Give the backbone structure.
Amino acid sequence: MINLLVHFVLMLAMPPLLLGVINKTKALFAGRKGLPLLQNYYDLIKLARKDVVISQTTTWIFVAAPVISLTGIVMAGLLVPLGPFQSPISFTGDLILFAYLLAVGRFFTTAAALDTGSPFEGMGAAREVTFACLSEPVLFFALLVLAKMSGTLILGDLLHAPLTVGIQGAAASLVLVAIGMFIVLLAENSRIPVDDPNTHLELTMIHEAMVLDHSGPLLGLILYGASVKLFVLSAVLLHILFPFQSGYALLDWSLFMVEMLGVAVAIGVVESIMARLQMRHVPYLLIAAILFCAFGFVLLVR
Amino acid sequence: MQYEIHNGLVLIFAATIIMIASGLPACFFDRRFVWTQRLTTALMLIGSVLGWWGLVVASFGTPASSIVWDWHLPAGHFSIGLDALGAVFLIPVFTIPVLGSFYGLSYWRQSEHPENGRGLGLFYGLLAGGMALVVLSRDSVLFLIAWELMAMAAFFLAGAEDEKAEVRRAGWTYLVATHAGTICLLALFALLRQVSGGFALSTVVDGSLTTGIAATLFVLTIIGFGFKAGLMPLHVWLPGAHANAPSHVSAVMSGVMLKMGIYGILRVLTLLPVTELWNGEVVLGLGAITGILGIVFAIAQNDIKRLMAYSSIENIGIITMGIGLALIGRALHRADFVLLGLGGALLHVWNHSLFKSLIFLNSGAIMHAVHTRDMNRMGGLAKSMPVTAGLFLFGAVAICGLPPLNGFASEWLIYLGLFHSVGAGSSTVWPVGVAAVALAVIGALALACFVKIYCVVFLGTPRHPVHGQPHDPSRLMRYPMMLLAGGCVVLGILPQLGFPLLQNAVEQWMDPVAPAIPQLASAAPFQWISSMAMVFIVLVVGGFVLLRRKIVRQAPALVGTWGCGYGLATPRIQYTATSFGEMLVSLFRWVLFPRFRRPAISSVFPAKSEFSTEVPDPVLERVILPAFRQAGRNMMKLRLLQQGRIQIYLLYVLAVLVFLLGWGKLGF
């Protein structure tokens, strides 16, 4: 019961901190002082209290999309176990629901972007749905590998497979899957080398270009939703990277939080040392990710 | 003579007759008499109510029932029957056409179309009744008669506006394709007659077939019915016929008629002995290819109805993947594969008939408003047609397979089945798991496709001036769409409602010697999906209402869209249907072969020029048409036979008959 509560609290409260850690890491690399660690919380509070500016072109979709997207992400987060603990909700086949809850968010975020009639947002939306077509197979190959290892279709048990079944005989597959999933983590959360979260007004952006017209609480919901998505996908990745368990709840929770921050640092490092890819090269990166995971699957079942 | 009356079957048979004849009385009245169309619709309604009544009665009676009469044809009997598999397919037949018929009262008014209104009603009834008869037939001769009734009625419906050259061309393509399919079916049933000794569609062929004959039967089944279902690459007739038919006809053709191909495959497979593994693998692969290519072609379209037609091909692909999984399960004696694969496929048959009919009816409302099918000339319709836009959103979300609507339920079942195969342990099965990835790709592409269609048509600002003010259609057109959208919600949250019938159908389809089949409800814990869906809806609606209230209280400043500092934004700078799909089209250009007409810039001050792009069907344009042209050139000499006199053709028939009789006498 306590673990359940911790799951909720961590999933809802921790995500903006991850963004703070990423920013701090990038600042360190650049030799800057950087934003305060908690800046994203301040931003969210500020946005929640602001008024909204709404384009006359838009319909109710524009207002509903952030709500739908956030709901989808949070409900998907309830299916993912954090660290060695059980997920709040689990049933046979919830792994598909996980992927499709994220997709519902994508449908409405891109619809809201096109709702404004702005060419920038249309551009962002077109890229978002295109790249999603390439990151979806990565996720499903990864799920197939884990399903094969664990012999179950419950997302919680499946993600715990490296922990419970052990990585003997599957280590190579897991390494490949981890690489693929890390690329998807970067792509789905609009990080360098796929997208740059720091610039808005360029023709080269994906996610940031889609939310140009959102303001106030609407923008807050979108930014918060994006951070929760980063948290959830990182939690998925951690099951493959660090399948460890001490057996003591307190220790495990702290370990999990440290691991999460570690992922954030890793993302920050990647963002610091890499340049953003040309937009026409992004598909190659994602196809490479598909191939990594496909190899992982073939290695396991051969 | 067997004569066994079963109430449910008799009711359904009566319903079929009424539907077939529904357009007939109208033909005796004057073409300007508006009540004729209402009479036709009333008869369709009576037929559908009787049919549903029969289905309900039959579901409480014995599952298998039949009526067999002798007739005067030299072969076969008049033999009809009803079982769970048939009932699954009869439900859309008794639901969609009647809704389309009411829609047609306003969409295709007799007073506005006096030239073809009555004919449309006649063939519409023939199509609906023909489909019911296809499902009821238990004799291959009767089956073929019903099949041709359905196919020819669809030809005349698709060609309703035959004054347009494009419509005529689409109609001819359909006619050629459907008869190519029928030829395969003739061969199939002749071969079946040879090995089973009768025309009845109930004798299971025993296992003594040679592999060659079994394989031939299987291939003929897939090709013959694949033409009707629209499996790649046999889909060539589908986009043209669907795009050019009146919208309520497209809804019936796509929502119900394509499923008759699926029904045919499933029905014939019940007659064949236990299949081999490769059969299932071929079907699964065909399904995956059909699904992926179907939706990729869809993304490349700018004609709203062609896009929807290609999306039907994609959905047929998903259904076919389910059937392939079930076949693999039958070969390996894995009851769970059969249950999840076939259960998911049959559920998707229902779901697709709901959401695809919904969006086809919707496309009719859009075309009434903007008088074009070209999405690049639409935009911003949600403001002037809020009800249509809202209803379309239901269809779009459902067709992408997104929770909480019905598309998710059936795709989820198929996913579960595919994932089961990975854990199966047997080394022969694991490639099946890769099909789950194909299904995921289909899902992501479908999302791109329907974001494109919904947003380009309804959101943003109008890209092109429209004659008159677009407005929501009349109630007669709205209510059928609302019922269909309601169906999408109900089957999305409570798909369990259909489980008893699906379970019966799967059990009946499964080999009798196979291990006992588990319950669908226990194999797929839908109570969780239901509760998650309801929580999702409550949270979204609650959050939206709260946010909306805050925004209304604040009375937001209404401004234009932020143009990044550019003040002279026009509707023309918006993303269009073409530009939204451009990245995906170029990713798949190796299969789409898009055609660009680029302006050639020759002077220092280039003149006004144009750019255009189109993606015609590559199979039709690059394979079929060149082949037909070549064949036409090579067979010039045979034109000697084509004299254009009916007497000479009758002579040919007589000559062939005499030849065949002589051949038979000689005993070759």
